[in-house]
Structures are given as C-alpha cells and as structure tokens.
Amino acid sequence: MPATVIVGAQWGDEGKGKIVDLLARDSDLVCRYNGGPNAGHTIVVDGETYKLRQIPSGIVWGKECLIGAGCVVDPAVLIDEIDEYVTGRGLPEDCLHLSGNAHMIMPWHLLLDQASERRLGKLQIGTTRRGNGPAYADKAHRLGIRLQDIFDPKILRQKIETALAEKNLWLERIYGVEPVELEELAARYESYAQRLRPYLADTSLLVDRALRDGRRVLLEGGHGTLLDIDNGTYPFVTSSSTIAGGACTGIGIGPTRIDAVVGVAKAYVTRVGEGPFPTEIDGSDQARMRDLGGEFGTVTGRERRCGWLDLVALRYAVRLNGITSIALTKLDVLSFFDRLPVCIAYELRDGTRTDEFPEHQSDFHAARPVYETLEGWGAELDGGDDLPAAARRYVEFVEHQLGVEVSWVGTGAEREQVLVRG
Ligand code: GDP
Ligand code: IMO
Ligand code: MG
C-alpha cells in the first residue's frame, strides 16, 4: 500500500512504535503527523530498547523519516534525539526532514503546562507536562513560533518578545512563577538553528513526490483516537488531531492519497492521566496486568491504568479512522488470566443498552460495561506460527464484533514477536 496511516485506536501506548517498525522494513519514508515529545514509542530489537518521542519509528531501520507541519517540536529534545538516533548511529543528515511549519514548544509552554495542572489540582488533565497543550493553543491563537522562525534571528527575537510580553504576565501574575528572560532565550534558540538547519525541508512536497514515484509511505500517529482533540474524551485529551484524518492536515496531503489505515489496539486497554475509563479493572487484577504488561509511561514513568478490552470504544475508532486492518498487540499479556471479560456494549444511565460510543460526555462518564467473558488459554504464547485455540477465538471474536480483519497479533515486545495473519 503506497500510503498507510498507523493510528492508535485507544488512549495511546497501544504499541504503535512496534507496528511502525514492523511495516517500516518494507517502506521508504516514515512520517510523524501530530503531537510532540508527549509521545513515547518503544521498539525492542535484540534486547536493545529504542524510545522515540518525536522522530518517527522508521529511524530504527535507518529509513528516511520526516516530521510534518501538524507536529509541535521541542528543539532541545529533538536535538538530543538526533544525537542519539541519527548522527549517533552514523545515519546521514538527509535521513530526517523537518517541516518549517511545525510549531515549537517554547520554555513558557512547559512552565504553563506545569503551572496550569498544579492550579487545576483535583481537576487536572494529567498531562505529560511537556508543553504540548500550551504550544497548540498558541498555534491556534496565532502567537506561535515555528521552526522556520529560528533561521531569521531578527524575526525570532521579535516573535519571542511579542509572546513574552503576554506569557510573562501569566507566569508572574496568574501562576506566581518566575518570568522567562528574553536575551538568554533568544541566544539559545539561535544556537538551535545551527543544529537544525540541515534538516529543514518542504515536507509536504517530499511526501507528494515520494507517492508520485511509487515509494511506500507510512504516516505514524502519536497518542490515540480517544485522545483526539475533536473526537476524543474531551477535556481529557491531547491537543492535536490524532486520528487518521489528522495525517492529511499534519503532513499536507489530500485524503485521496491514503490507501490503508492500520488501527493499533492492545488486546486490553490502558490509559495514562485522568478521565473516564469504563472498563478500568477493579481490584488486584489491575496491578497484575500493569506488572505483566510493563504498563508504565515511556515518557513520564507514570503507572498506566489498566482495563479489559472495550469493543464499543474500538468500534468508534474503526469509524473515526476508517480502519482497514487491526494490529492487536500484547495478546501475550492476557495468557496469565483464566477469564477474559470483553466489553461488547454499554448500559447507559436510563438503562438502555448501546454498542455505539455515546455522543454525550455524561453518558460516557456513567456508561457501565456489558461484558462477555471469554476463556483464557492457560499457557504462554510460544511465538510459533499459530495461536492456542482459545487465543485464536479471542482474536476472531474481535474481528467478528468489529467487522475488520486483525492482520497482526503482538506476542511479545521484541521486533520478531508478532504473528502475521491472512
Ligand atoms: P506506543 O506509544 O503506541 O508506541 O506504545 P509504547 O511504546 O508507549 O507502549 C507499548 C509497550 O508495549 C512498549 O514497551 C512495547 O515495547 C511493548 N509492546 C509492544 N507490542 C507488544 C506485544 O505484543 N507484547 C508485549 N508484551 N509488549 C509489547
Ligand atoms: P503515545 O504516542 C498515552 C495523555 C496524557 C494526558 C493527556 C494530555 O506514546 O501513545 P498532553 O501532555 O498530551 O497534553 O496530555 O493525553 N497522553 C498520552 N497517553 N500515550 C501517549 O502518547 C500520550 N500522549 C498524551 O497522559 O492524559
Ligand atoms: Mg507511548
């Protein structure tokens, strides 16, 4: 498939990095279309772990990668990633391209993200505190500073000055924290320009040309469908368009260029941060699943909340993204459970039952999961070409309920631990 979107189908951390890595082997160009350093995509190859935050996961194979206009970039974090994963591994500079239209996360975005969460207290979102929300807010407010701005010191200084005039008021007067100093900041960002200049490119044009030349392009999403700013569980969402449609705006290509959409879903569900979660497990099985699945944030190290597979939410993800096939990851983690509840419908406040995701937030908050319990398989997955009968039934149940083929099943964290079906 010349242009394939890979999108998280739940609340993030579904194993997108691993699936992008799998498909990148036979691809030419891998592009990140949204989000920033709030993402953490993990790839494990021969016992070595790669944790990517902004650079697309295709870099592990040394593939040509790009960061599109829909992303926000923290230049300091990006330079560290380049040192570690591009130049540090002997890859050439033309392995990575950056859109000059991508907005930068500025130091005040980090301070505002942290201060605003502190101020919200019990009502906080539970953000990664990496400045994402404030950076996207400034983009919409037209007060943002883009990567292209750092290459003109005069423009850069002017934009920083304009932004600081407002941001320092907020920092000092509303949040009572130290203001940001102009001179040091302008000098620091000018120095980033030296490091980032070689990577700047017209990324929309690059992708268009690649597709015209018949090259295979992967479009990698950050986060997950239910964290989408427009369609997710607002306000407990991230601030970008995480869904497959976001790949078009975030890269700068038309929807007719997308050939396939791979939805990545865990065989169960996790969520980091606050917000409603109908299938969250009560009791000791939650901690057990967290330990078995290693469910701790890649970026923040926070405990991920764990729950049973939610097919109502996944059905919604199929609809929002136009998912053409599913990668069901971490099935191996379920090997240790005898009984596997799967949520097939929600019971709403008025007692009615629905298998569609509730449109109204209060219905979702109060939704009670209706479970069908499937049998466990009572043995660890051996990584062979076939699954135990009960594990196969679990996968087929998902396919049957969603009407979408599960084309890959994750059986372990390592690159090779995946079963390719049909
Ligand atoms: P992403 O943000 O969607 O790329 O996912 P993360 O990397 O944040 O979290 C997924 C975690 O599960 C990582 O530690 C992966 O190495 C691991 N992982 C991915 N697929 C599998 C799988 O099939 N089985 C197991 N046990 N671990 C997996
Ligand atoms: P990947 O790409 C899991 C969650 C945060 C928080 C909310 C808002 O690794 O799947 P933000 O910092 O974006 O303003 O936080 O979104 N969140 C993620 N959860 N995986 C992610 O990324 C996430 N990116 C953001 O925990 O609840
Ligand atoms: Mg992650």
Commentary on this structure:
The protein has 422 residues and is of the alpha/beta class. The protein contains 12 helices and 19 strands. The strands form 5 sheets. Strands 9-7-5-2-10-1-11-14-18-19 form a 10-stranded mixed sheet, with helices on both faces. A 3-stranded antiparallel sheet has the order 16-15-17. Strand 15 and strand 16 form a beta hairpin. Helix 5 crosses helix 6. The longest helix has 22 residues. It is globular, with a radius of gyration of 21 Å. The two termini are 16 Å apart. The mean pLDDT is 96. 6-O-phosphoryl inosine monophosphate binds next to helix 4.
Q: Which ions, cofactors or small ligands are bound in this entry?
A: guanosine-5'-diphosphate, 6-O-phosphoryl inosine monophosphate, magnesium ion
Briefly note the structural class of the backbone: alpha/beta
Strand content: 15-25%
List segments where confidence is low: pLDDT < 50 over at least 5 consecutive residues.
Answer: none
Percent of residues in helices comes to: 25-40%
* Biggest sheet overview: 10 strands, mixed
Q: Enumerate how many helices there are, as a single number.
A: 12
Strand order of the largest sheet: 9-7-5-2-10-1-11-14-18-19
- The counted number of beta strands is 19
The rounded Rg comes to 21 Å
Q: Which whole number gives the mean pLDDT?
A: 96
Shape: globular
Distance between the termini: 16 Å
How does the SSE layout of this entry go?
Layout (H helix, E strand, L loop, with lengths): L2 E6 L7 H9 L4 E4 L8 E5 L2 E5 L11 E4 L4 E2 L1 H11 L10 E4 L3 E2 L2 H14 L11 H10 L11 H22 L7 H15 L3 E2 L1 H10 L4 E4 L24 H7 L8 E7 L2 E3 L12 H10 L11 E3 L3 H11 L3 E5 L9 E9 L5 E2 L6 H6 L1 E8 L13 H14 L3 E5 L7 E3 L2
Parallel strand pairs: 1-10, 1-11, 2-5, 2-10, 5-7, 6-8, 7-9, 11-14, 14-18
Antiparallel strand pairs: 3-4, 12-13, 15-16, 15-17, 18-19
Helix pairs in contact: 3-4, 3-5, 5-6
